[in-house]
Amino acid sequence: MAEQRLPIVNGDDGQWGDILNQFLQKEHYNTGTNLPANGGHKTITVRAGTTGAGSAPLKFTSGSLMTVAEVGAVEFDTDRLYITQTTGTTRKVIAAFDDASGATGDVYYRNNGGHFTRLPIGTNNYVLTVASGLPTW
Question: Is-above-0.90 flag for pTM?
Answer without folding.
Answer: no
